[in-house]
Write a structure and sequence with these properties.
The chain has helices spanning 21-30, 61-73, 93-101, 146-158, 174-181, 194-205, 237-247, 267-276, 298-301; strands at 7-16, 37-40, 47-55, 85-92, 107-110, 113-117, 130-134, 164-168, 186-191, 214-217, 228-234, 251-263, 279-287, 290-297. By secondary structure, it is of the alpha/beta class. The strands form 3 sheets. The chain has a 7-stranded mixed β-sheet, with helices on both faces. The chain has a 4-stranded antiparallel β-sheet with strand order 2-3-1-4. It has a 3-stranded mixed β-sheet with strand order 5-6-7, with helices on one face. The structure holds S-adenosylmethionine. GO terms for molecular function: protein-lysine N-methyltransferase activity.
Length: 310
């Protein structure tokens, strides 16, 4: 039987070339988009298009309505919306994949780590450079979004000799793959979206040495009993707020927590809620409006006189 092709909805926001595209990308993220791409309009050199793709199971009219609501708020912040236009079109699986492919390229996360789309033949520059191979576009997490990028830099800083990790909201599985490449032995990844679970499993198989990383369809750490050395969660701030009360019970002594997906405006609230459970933020990354926080238990990080313990 012939397999039916998935139909994708493509929402496009066309903006004048002097309009900041990040503002539109952020509006997309706030209504649940997994990512955006930016394309110069070939027919009209004064416009840029920001596209985002939704599969037919995840698209509904509310996404479009919510996006328009977000855009309608922008004049209150002084943005001139003249020439900003929203449109929707449909395309099938094969054209969707090909459209995405032209916008992905290797992303250098650090001196030691590069994320490479699986159709690119990339030669590492250094003998100790790790390569993460991804089939991007199937789920969130390619290294190009500021939150993923910052999470990867945070993990590189803190993993050290960590032995175990929970990746909450794994998306494409990218952070779990990185953790394994940096030596973490026991990794469990969770996502409530079955499509993300499937994509993460596929990406894990693309990376030798990662095959035994476990991926579960699960909301946050609901029903999970264990404890680990590191918890990473790149989910939106409102979901992280629900998750904070669960952190302490799932983290080993001297463990680290990396929280991302937090718009800058909500960072103070997350910091305060973490303080309420006894955690301090020891490093904050700020990139393109997004905050990524590395946190530890206060008593494990600071002596009473404020000196850093370890
Ligand atoms: C922003 S993406 C992050 C993907 C990847 N970890 C990264 O850093 O690029 C957030 C992911 O969290 C998942 N998610 C949202 N709410 C969740 C929940 N309550 N429990 C588990 N996963 C959730 C989404 O399905 C999505 O795949």
């Amino acid at each position: 039987m012939e397999e039916r092709l998935m139909i994708w909805k493509k929402i496009t926001v066309a903006i004048p070339n002097d309009f900041d595209p990040e503002i539109i990308s952020d509006a997309f993220m706030r209504v649940g988009a997994n990512g955006t791409e930016m394309v110069d309009d070939e027919d009209n050199s004064v416009k840029t298009k920001i596209n985002s793709y939704f599969d037919e199971n995840n698209y509904n009219e509310k996404i479009l309505t919510d996006l328009k609501t977000q855009l309608n708020k922008l004049p209150e912040f002084g943005f001139d919306m003249t020439g900003v236009e929203v449109s929707v079109s449909a395309l099938d699986d094969s054209s969707w994949e090909n459209e995405w492919k032209q916008y992905y390229h290797p992303v250098k996360i650090s001196r030691y780590l590069t994320v490479v789309p699986n159709w690119v033949d990339y030669q590492p520059k250094y003998s100790d450079e790790h390569i993460i191979v991804m089939d991007p576009g199937k789920s969130f997490g390619t290294g190009t979004h500021p939150t993923t990028y910052s999470c990867m830099q945070a993990l590189e800083l803190i993993l050290g000799d960590a032995k175990s990790l929970y990746d909450v909201g794994t998306g494409s599985g990218i952070l779990s793959i990185q953790a394994r490449q940096l030596g973490v032995k026991d990794i469990q990844a969770f996502d409530l979206d079955p499509e993300a679970v499937r994509a993460a499993k596929e990406n894990i198989q693309l990376n030798p040495g990662c095959e035994d990383i476990e991926v579960f369809e699960n909301s946050l750490l609901d029903g999970v009993d264990g404890k680990v050395d590191v918890i990473v969660a790149n989910i939106l701030a409102d979901v992280i707020l629900q998750f904070i009360p669960d952190i302490d019970a799932h983290l080993n002594k001297d463990g680290f927590v990396v929280l991302s997906g937090i718009i800058n405006e909500k960072e103070a609230l997350i910091t305060q809620k973490m303080a309420e459970i006894g955690f301090v933020v020891l490093e904050a990354f700020h990139l393109k409006g997004w905050s990524t926080l590395i946190c530890r238990r206060k008593e494990e990080f600071e002596a009473e006189d404020g000196a850093i313990l370890r």
